[in-house]
Amino acid sequence: MTTLRAISDLPVLDFSSAEYRNAPFQVLSDWARKWKIARSERGVELLDYELCRNAIVDRNLGTGHPKLIDLLGLPEGRPLEYKRNSISFHNRGDRRRDLRRPLTRILSEEAAERFRPDIRKVVTGFVDAMPADRPVDLISALCDKIPSAVYCHWVGAPMSDAGFVARTSHTVQQVHTREPRHTPAVVEAFEALIDYVDERIADRRQTPGDDLLSDLIRAETSGQLNADDLRNWVIKLAEANTDNSSHQIAIAIIELASRPDVWTRLGAQPELAARAVREVMRYHPRTISTSREVLSETKLAGVVLPKGTPVFANIGATHWDADYYSAPDEFDIDRAGEPLHLNFGGGVFSCIGRFIVTVEVEETVAFLARRFPGLALEATGFAHSAMFTSVTQLLARLEPASPQRGANPRRYATA
Ligand code: HEM
Q1: Of all protein residues, whose CA lies closest to atom 16 belonging to ligand 1?
Q2: What lines the ligand 1 site, CB under 6 Å?
Q3: Rounded mean pLDDT of the chain?
Q4: Distance in Å, CA 239 to ligand 1 centroid
Q5: Residue 362 CA to ligand 1 centre (angstroms)
């Protein structure tokens, strides 16, 4: 008979250590070799691939979002009201399923494919506007712009709103830092976003078009959503979109352009983009962990977890698990027959935007590699929290020709 352990018996992980900050995936993978389950300041940490994958779809593990918002201490008001009613606060069940249904249809894999030519045009337009004679800050000139332009298209807004959309998403996503010092800025950004969304909805009600918001209004008219759900979705799409997508686009540019052989192959064979992006999302995912909360006392890996325990599936550890990926610390776009990455979580909590953002990343790297075989990374920087990979710097020179280039050794430069 196996002896059950308590959370207090578990080893303690330190996500603030210099080792973790500098080489997070190596450290996660070392931890995973020693332990399947551990604990940290934020809760219980799952490190094993199977344990994480099962936890992500476990019916007894619900959303971790309410606890996160509690921790931030959001005051009563419109932002908190929005959060309470948004998809993130709903646990498994009919209401969650009904809420997700119209969005999963509108943002399906097929819909994202149909949108691909438009995304290609968006990418081309931004790249064409960039100077070729000096280094360019690709975060502001490209990575932020693509997803925020897509959002503007969704809500029928002028492209001049893209800067506001990007800034707002970056600010509201600060909730994931778990640091209450960000709360005033988060509240202010949500207030502005809510006003903005109300304006956009009023505009589209007057002049419906061929865009996502008009589709949602049609879903409301046919009784699939009520007016509050519609509004909450339009806020949620702004919240979750630019910040995550921009960082993942930037990660992909750095990981691929810093490997001249891969970049050259991609430039010559754009059809490799899908597998190159899949490997980027495995090797260096935006999502390092995703959260859940125990709904009623349960046991995981022989540990008793009381109701309310915060649980984190360490996706970063699973992606560097040698039992599932051969030589996981090697970047290899030719991997085959290995499990799909968990960058977008899974099950009824899975990322609604996963198909569209994948198309955005694929189109961006395929276009850049083809147009700029000699793209030179002048300065890059990453920051890794327990939750996310963020790109803090991405300065590049857009070289059409391919001079002799070496791989960028400062891949994990700290911010
Ligand atoms: C590369 C960029 C992105 C990454 C890495 C990412 C990752 C994630 C992850 C890990 C989750 C939680 C899944 C889980 O816990 O099982 C999630 C949820 C979500 N994502 Fe994304 N996301 C990205 C882009 C987007 C975009 C572009 C949108 C908007 C279209 C979006 C909308 C959402 C929504 C609405 C949820 C909540 C789903 C729910 O609670 O039912 N995400 N995302």
Answers
A1: 345
A2: 56, 87-88, 100, 107, 147, 236-237, 240-241, 244-245, 248, 286-287, 290, 343-346, 349-353, 356-357
A3: 94
A4: 10
A5: 17
**Separation of CA 350 and ligand 1 centre (Å):** 6
**Ligand 1 centroid – CA 135 distance (Å):** 32
pLDDT at 316: 98
Q: How far is Cα 285 from Cα 316, in angstroms, rounded to an integer?
A: 7
Judge whether residue 413 has pLDDT over 50.
no
Which residue ranges make up each domain of the chain? 7-397
Residue-wise pLDDT for 70-126, tens only, equals: 999 999 999 999 999 999 999 999 999 999 999 999 999 999 999 999 999 999 999
The encoded tokens of residue 54 equal 């099962």
According to the model, what pLDDT value does residue 90 have? Answer: 95
> Could you identify the atom of ligand 1 that is nearest to the CA of residue 346?
16
Give nearest CA residue, ligand 1 atom 11. Answer: 351
Tell me: the pLDDT tens digits for 271-288?
A: 999 999 999 999 999 999
pLDDT exceeds cutoff 60 at 352? yes
Residue 357 to residues 31, 116, 227, 326, Cα–Cα distance (Å): 30, 10, 26, 27
The CATH fold of domain 7-397: Cytochrome p450 (1.10.630)
| Tens of pLDDT, residues 131-173 | 888 999 999 999 999 999 999 999 999 999 999 999 999 999 9
Q: Do 39 and 304 form a contact (C-beta atoms < 8 A)?
A: no
179-186 long-range CB contacts below 8 Å, 24 or more apart?
Answer: 180/71, 180/72, 180/73, 182/72, 183/72, 183/73, 183/74, 186/72, 186/74, 186/79
| pLDDT for 268 beyond 80 | yes
At 279, the amino acid letter reads E
- Chain center to CA of 314: 14
Confirm if 305 and 298 have CB atoms less than 8 A apart. Answer: yes
C-alpha 308/C-alpha 292 separation (Å) is 9
| Closest atom of ligand 1 relative to the 342 alpha carbon | 10
The pTM assigned to this predicted structure is 0.95
Helix/strand/coil for 387: coil
* The amino acid at 281: M
pLDDT at site 247: 98
Which structure tokens are listed for 178?
Answer: 């778990």
